[in-house]
Amino acid sequence: MNDALTLFLYQSGLVSLTGAQQIAAHFHEKTLSKNDYLLKSGQVSNEYLFVESGFLRLFAYDVDGNDITTGFCSSNQVVFEVSSYFNRTPSKENIQALTDCRGRFITFDELNNLFHTMPEFREFGRSILVKGFSDLKVRMLSMITESAEERYANLLRSNPEIIRNAPLKTIATYLGITDTSLSRIRKEMAHK
Amino acid sequence: MNDALTLFLYQSGLVSLTGAQQIAAHFHEKTLSKNDYLLKSGQVSNEYLFVESGFLRLFAYDVDGNDITTGFCSSNQVVFEVSSYFNRTPSKENIQALTDCRGRFITFDELNNLFHTMPEFREFGRSILVKGFSDLKVRMLSMITESAEERYANLLRSNPEIIRNAPLKTIATYLGITDTSLSRIRKEMAHK
DNA sequence: TGCATTTCTTGCCAAATGGCAAGCGTAGGC
DNA sequence: GCCTACGCTTGCCATTTGGCAAGAAATGCA
Questions:
Q1: Are residue B96 and residue B180 in the same domain, yes or no?
Q2: Strand C–CB A147 distance below 7 A
Q3: Are B24 and B62 contained in the same domain?
Q4: Interface of A with B in 4-63 (CB under 8 A)
């Protein structure tokens, strides 16, 4: 009987089953209630969290103090603030639960120890980083080449559950538009 | 007497001076003439290139076949296509020299061997990945919160040399606007 | 040098998106 | 259960950006 984290590690293709079990054993339980923060700006991210259930969002504040959603996270994904976690510097971003969440985390020191003792976990760690990077590149390209309506339709296709759990304004800032515009786009799309 | 690569490794703060010298010794010379490709889409990126002199750009094709600049690279930076290089998959992006370039590269297999034998190089490798990721996050936030004019002003401030070496259309796609708009923005800014 | 190609600018107008404010509905706290 | 946030929609109009096409300027190549 293997838990979701063990399976996630194993299914990456980079970790053996016994390796996955050993690695997963080092993670700790974590629960968050809706609206709880996993990370607040100014803090140093110290939880590399595998999400078993629930949804979260990452956001930053712009110069005018508006919060801008920089990412979403759903179950079977890893969430943490890359720069703060690896550089041990204060985060500019926040990570907040959109719904009640359950997951398993590991601290930076624990992760580094595991990296040293288990090369296959190192590979896994790199793959998480590379995937996050590539996904952001795809999103940037979509931001440049697609209309707001196309970007919303994409998001709806790829993350329908999140769209149901996040308020309109949150989704709008993620897409780079105002809540007013998103409301109009929704209306447009309903007509079709 | 240390070369630029050795200094770059050492100045990361993650590698000792002797370590930096040993690592640099594994890199190979590379020169590119203006407009040469370091990587073409469809190929697997196999050169982790430290640029000693010159400028390059990364670009992808959108659905209509237009090329979209996804990044710039100048001297004292490392350039490669992250996803293709680490996953050994065909690249969707191209890397092309904007000017004559000189640098030093290492292949994927060589890099992995070095990662295994020199833990300090592993740290360095991670820091390159993390920095690329964070920089892209900053750019995404700027894309969402700033006007085209502000983004252009930022780019002008951070990379004046590149702006002088890249054609207007190349810069425009990087900023997510048309060349027509960028031309107008330049005119506007000249008036001030 | 001269021709051809590309790059850049500009005018005119259209389309996309934003700003503001009012109104409405709903959900949570007391 | 009521009242107050808050979240969402909508109208009106402003601003930003784009599309197209023509022409000017610069560049590369024979």
A1: no
A2: yes
A3: yes
A4: 60, 62-63
Examine residue A16 and state whether it is found in any structural domain, yes or no. Answer: yes
- Count other C-beta atoms under 10 Å from residue B32's C-beta: 21
ipTM: 0.94
From A80's Cα to the closest Cα of chain B, the distance in A is 12
In chain B, residues with a C-beta closer than 8 Å to the C-beta of A134 are 82-83
* pTM, full prediction: 0.95
Higher pLDDT, A123 or A63: A123
Residues 120-179 of B with CB under 7 A from strand C: 167-169, 179
For residue B160, say whether its CB is under 7 Å from any atom of strand D.
Answer: no
Q: Is A103 helix (H, G, I), strand (E, B) or coil?
A: strand
Across the interface, whether the CB atoms of A141 and B63 are under 8 A apart is answered no
CA of A180 to C1' of C21 (A): 12
Are B22 and B94 in a shared domain? yes
> Cα(A101)–Cα(A141) distance, rounded to whole angstroms?
31
For residue range B63-103, list pLDDT tens digits in order: 888 899 999 999 999 999 999 999 999 999 999 999 999 99
Enter the tokens of residue A96: 């907040």
- CATH at A19: 2.60.120.10
Which chain A residues touch B60 with a CB distance below 8 Å? Answer: 141
Are residue B91 and residue B45 in the same domain, yes or no? yes
Q: CB neighbours of A5 closer than 8 A, spacing ≥ 6?
A: A24, A27, A50, A52, A104
Asked if the Cβ–Cβ distance from A144 to B83 is below 8 Å, we say no
Domain total of chain A: 1
pLDDT (tens digit per residue) in A115-161: 999 999 999 999 999 999 999 999 999 999 999 999 999 999 999 98
pLDDT tens digits, residue range B106-163?
A: 999 999 999 999 999 999 999 999 999 999 999 999 999 999 999 999 999 999 988 9
Locate A190 and state its tokens: 């309903």
Q: What angle do CA B163, B169, B173 make, to 5 degrees?
A: 90
